[in-house]
């Protein structure tokens, strides 16, 4: 995955084009972060369709490095509440690793994101928050 490929991936994500996002993945990916695990196109669309009803989310890439097997990103994930997302709502969806956010609140999180690659496509994703 080249830097240009990744720029197209982030653009699709920031534009909420979930089918275009998933096209960057192998057929059987493992996307895991903060207690969320996604392995299918429908799970990705369901998760982000739910989340993005409550928040406007965008990714700004600050650093990018890649090889044939790995793409590593350091960046800022910005989440702005567009509707109240409560602890109860998150718990009902089983999203206990995510944080509530109120309408109008903004959270900016520095993240390290690792994408393991297979054949130029994303096979798995893991990320960590950086203080």
UniProtKB/TrEMBL annotation:
One Pfam family, short name please?
A: SnoaL_2
Q: Which Gene3D superfamilies match?
A: 3.10.450.50
Q: Which domain of life is it from?
A: Bacteria
Give the InterPro entries listed for this entry: NTF2-like_dom_sf, SnoaL-like
- The record places domain SnoaL-like at 7-123
Protein known as: Nuclear transport factor 2 family protein
Origin organism is Altericroceibacterium endophyticum
């Amino acid at each position: 995955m080249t830097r240009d490929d990744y720029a197209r991936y982030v653009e699709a994500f920031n534009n909420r084009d979930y089918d275009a996002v998933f096209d960057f993945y192998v057929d059987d990916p493992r996307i895991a972060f903060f207690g969320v695990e996604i392995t299918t196109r429908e799970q990705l669309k369901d998760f982000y369709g739910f989340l993005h009803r409550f928040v406007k989310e965008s990714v700004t890439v600050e650093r990018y490095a890649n090889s044939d097997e790995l793409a590593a990103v350091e960046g800022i994930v910005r989440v702005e509440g567009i509707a109240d997302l409560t602890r109860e709502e998150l718990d009902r969806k089983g999203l206990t690793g995510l944080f509530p956010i109120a309408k109008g609140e903004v959270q900016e999180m520095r993240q390290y994101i690792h994408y393991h690659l297979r054949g130029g496509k994303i096979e798995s994703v893991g990320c960590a928050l950086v203080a």
